[in-house]
Amino acid sequence: MHGKRSQVLFGLVVLLLIVILGRLTQMQLLWGQRFQQDYRAGPAGNEILDTVRGSIISADGRVLAKDIVSRNIAVHYSLLQSGDREEWVEVVAGLTEESPDRLHARAEAICRRVERIWEVVRESTQMEHLRIVEQDQYHPVVMDVSREVAVHIHSLRDRFDGIKIQERSIREYAGGNLFPHILGQCGRLSADRWKELFDNDRTWFPGIPVRDIGTRYRMDDTLGVSGIERQFEDILRGRRGYIAHSIEFRPFRVERISETRAPEPGGDLHLTLRADFQEAVMQVFARAARDPDSGFQRGAAVIMDAGSGAVLAAGTWPSYTQEEFRTDYASILRQPHSPLLFRPAQAALPTGSVYKLMTAIAALEEEKIHRGTAFHCEGRKRIHGRWFGCLGYHGRIGLEEAIERSCNVYFYEIALKLGGRQLSRWGREFGFGRRSGLDWPAEVPGSLDAPDSVFARINLSIGQGDFLATPLQVAAMAAAIANGGRPVNPHFVAYAVHPEGSIIYRHTPEERRISLRDGTLETVRNGMRRAVHGGGGTARDAGLRPFRAAGKTGTAELGAGLPNHAWFAGYAPYDDPRIAFAIVSERTDGQGGGHAAPLMGRILEEIWPGVNDGL
Q1: Which of 33, 471, 499, 587 is placed for a possible disulfide with 300 were both Cys, Cβ 3.0 to 4.6 Å?
Q2: How remote is the C-alpha of 30 from its chain's centroid?
């Protein structure tokens, strides 16, 4: 009997083991994935790994912008409120050169910014009771302190647990006043920009998996806010990494798992701009501005590759430095002549006689004149009861000589033959009246409308009236004339390089050619060459002959008793064009030939060795 009971008991145990093993097999095969997910209990302390922003490098190898590590004094948001500031403000002011008033003002600005972001998030999420990340973070109140100050702040942690040293990347710029407008600045993420990024699913905040941080923006981020820094933000920014910790509860064990993705640095931008060319432009401007007899106070110059439109220099005067912009913006605003204006792409001005090149091309293409057509100039012309003047008494004069001597009467005669749409159409073909497509975010389009009266046509034929253009557009026009009628796309960035060395961006030029009759450009270019090298040329004494330059002067009149805008535009060498250029001196008593053209001659003298060595 006892043996029989043992057998039954043994059988029951075996059966039970079979059931258990079968059940475990079923769970593993059918429900394993589900249980593996159910076991996971995380996250268990995640870390975000910051990236490094890419550098910006000039065509001649100078690093113009890069990230460096800065030690900043940061205060927790809870201590930035007005009632909790006095103690830390007194300590920080004593350790640094910051005044208590500036520290209070900075704390108030941070609080206002956080409140604006909180309001944007509340409106976006429709959550009445929420707490955003910045309300639990430390915020920098003094930037870039010394190692000694940092050590002292560390020693105060027992006294102030709401104050600490943060090491963060900051943007360092080189080049003084050479490139601040072009490079732009990086700044804190504004509430409006946050909302824009939020609406495009580009933001990250607690609740979103850390694995999705990548190229998303946090509320306390900095980003490019102007210039190339903004235009190429996605390339320069890089990609954050992370360490995601989690705990998994499994049968018979608990595992702590860490998943890591390394950050990817941003790409480096390589510019078309040459620091040595830009420096030459700014030095010529600085010398002219210091000379009380020069008549130069403000202006711009653009030099570009005549074939590709790659901008080699784009000087604007007056200028400022990145340091001045960061630390004393108010003083820049108080300076005369608008130093914040980037004149090469933002100063839309009448060009005066520079536009006569477009008038000549329009007349030849519309067959209103031919290469040998001549008119008689008596120093002025009466049109519908009004007198329109000229620079001198030229007698019988042909087109090439009219360009050489800048004879207004010759172009008045053309304007009487051309319709308004014909006259403006050819200007638009060469890039006027619209943005050039410059890879910079704040270019203005200028203005070129079809003149609707005979007097408006007369004015446009010599670059007056409602017509407005930027130095960049004028230089691009000169390049298209020089290269045989191929419009160029002015650009500052040549290519971008991934940290591993691969090209991730390259400027792609527009492939287009303006359809022109045989001989049109040859005639215009002959006139431009004569303007510099001819006996009656308006730029014959400007110092341009050693560089075999060709060009056109312009003096835009602003009204009786008012100063002029003095222009010169052209290319060099005339027999093998390498560069095209435009220069303007705003509101000066000088003329295009006697004032602007000599400035360009001095610039060419400085950069010509570099032009000869190859661009």
Answers
A1: 471
A2: 58
